Amino acid sequence: GIAAWEVRPITGYTFVDPLPAWGSGANLIINGEQYPWDIEFGAGDDWQKPNVHDRGISVLSDWGFDRLRVLSPAVLPPMLRQPVAMAKVRFVENLEDAQSLITYERPVDLKLQLAQEVEDWQAVLDGVRTIIIMPHTLRRVIIDLDNYYCAYPEVVTTGGQGSTIRLNWAESLYESQDAHLTNGHSFKLEKGNRNAIDRKYFSGTGDTFLPDGGEKHLFDTLWWQAGRYIELVVQTQSQSLTIERLSLSETRYPLTMESEFSSSDERLERLLPLLVRGLQMCAHETYLDCPYYEQLMYSGDTRLQVLTTYVITKDDRLPRKAIQMFDYSRHWFGLTQSRYPNRGVQLIGSFSLWWIGMVYDYALWRDDPIFVKRCMAGVRATVEAYLQFVNEDGLVTPIPGWNFMDWVTGWEAGMPPDAKQGVSAVINWQFVLLLTLVAKLEDVVGMPSLAQLRREQASQLAKKLERFWSEEKGLYADDFALTHYSEHAQILAILSEQLPPQRQARLSSGLLTNTSLSRASIYFHHYLFEAYRIMGEINALFERLSVWFDLPEKGLRTPVEVQDPTRSDCHGWGSHPLYHYFATLLGIRPGGAGFSSVTIHPQLGNLSHAKGTMPHPKGEIQVEYQQQGDKLTGQITLPAGITGTLHYGGHKLTLMSGAQTFDLRRTPETEITESGY
Predict the structure, then answer these.
(1) Residues 6+ positions from 610 with CB-CB distance below 8 Å
(2) pLDDT tens for residues 243-290?
(3) Cβ 179 vs Cβ 205: under 8 Å
(4) What whole-number percentage of the chain has pLDDT above 70?
(5) Contact yes or no for 484/491 (Cβ under 8 A)
(6) Which of 207, 231, 371, 553 is 20 to 30 A distant from 427 in Cα terms?
(7) CA distance 150 to 127
(8) CA distance 195 to 400
(9) Does 442 have pLDDT greater than 60?
């Protein structure tokens, strides 16, 4: 109510359902003949004074908020905006009639390539020439960005009244036209090698611009689009159309890779750009599960994204915001929403527990005890919400909402057996694990009595889960009938720290050797890798990394949602191996709350050497290892004021600030002495 604002309606916009990108902003049709050109410069005479509502106030104000617009300071830097320079024209085709404009039914046929026009269109993308499309012409152009981008498109036109410009985006082309018929929701749509386009179908989503014949009119969008490929379809009527400029402006959170990693296995380094790019594409004003289909921040996904952020940058502003947003989302009986901010309410109990994991991780990786204490009311509310659903046998029954755990073949909607009715061992073991982490959090914030309560609850529940133990198989079943078995139950039991040594050893053996277990997807591989770390089975970790090692060969530039065939070609949770490069292979982890000390336990598997630099709140941690047989040598450098412990082969070596060298040999009996998760 202070500034002398004036307002004017913007006409010419039609909003279009973005399917299959159902969780993104609406697509646009912009009609140049209705749009008030130069409105951004104050053009036009029909400006009006706005209706003044209540004045905005600070969220820190000490009076009531009734009907007031409550404002709070921004917590993030501006999003990145930079030009996309790698676009390449792959295909130019003449379309003969209106029927051929239904391009999702028309495979790319390189035999129809208008080779003489490719250079002309490429010059437009390069910003060195314009291109004129003659009257009554139909053109289809496939543009390959050669990487995955989130970007705002801009098209500048002259003339072309009555023409149509369609810009559709796709992550990949498909092997069949069924992709359009199923709106891209099916996980069974083959894409093949993402570099290939010939005889493949383009099914995408995007915006439409309708030039009005004016001179150098700029068409752009209100929200960004995402993908690797763009299909440009142009149809002119009686007037020729000049495309003065076609450009893209990349946008995302300014997340940069401050860490360094190298090793004797070139596959790991080859994956680095792909993993980093996947995390960047899923980091904006919030984290996203995927930029193409949903653009939603899910806490299960976000925990893995935040952990990966900690090992590549000191910037923790986006992780803090994520933790806060989920805390704000809390439902009336205590659970956080599964995704937030979001206008629809969705509850996934397992994701609420993983939010607690996010608070626990932050308490370890960042020195911010006041922030952690502020989160504890929400942590306790989540635990108490789960305790409401404990039955007379002391076991957790299905939580209201969607009891998703992982995209496992054979599980209905990602839910383990008996997750809708009955009692699920997987759900219960996850609660045991999180009770253990909450106990550690209560110790961190100085509440030892609450910590002891949570430890007792975790121990008691773990004992009750003996009902799921199969002595014959040496595994925990998913259900009371002992008919279903998954990697997930074994993983969570190992991570819970509640198993006696003999039971853990037998369970670990079963996890490694039993091929009939329902297998973890890309998402839950993070927890599988954590279990392998505790078990000391890094060679098994490398075997399961094969899912990622295959991605570059398939032409992918970012990690996928699930193993092919997959819906999403860019999914933030698939970047988590980057976390394990530093926290598992190089073995760098916090040794105490606030990263006040460092625990280093390198597990190199068959690597002969590895080195890396990882940011720490007080500087950098540098490690370099050479491994030959049972001998490990190298150098470790810690920031000023930081000490730590090196664990290797039964040895425990005190580390001081600054640089130090070591020369250690594995003892005959080796176990991890800091196995806590």
Answers:
(1) 261, 262, 263, 264, 585, 586, 602, 604, 624, 625
(2) 999 999 999 999 999 999 999 999 999 999 999 999 999 999 999 999
(3) no
(4) 95
(5) no
(6) 371
(7) 20
(8) 43
(9) yes
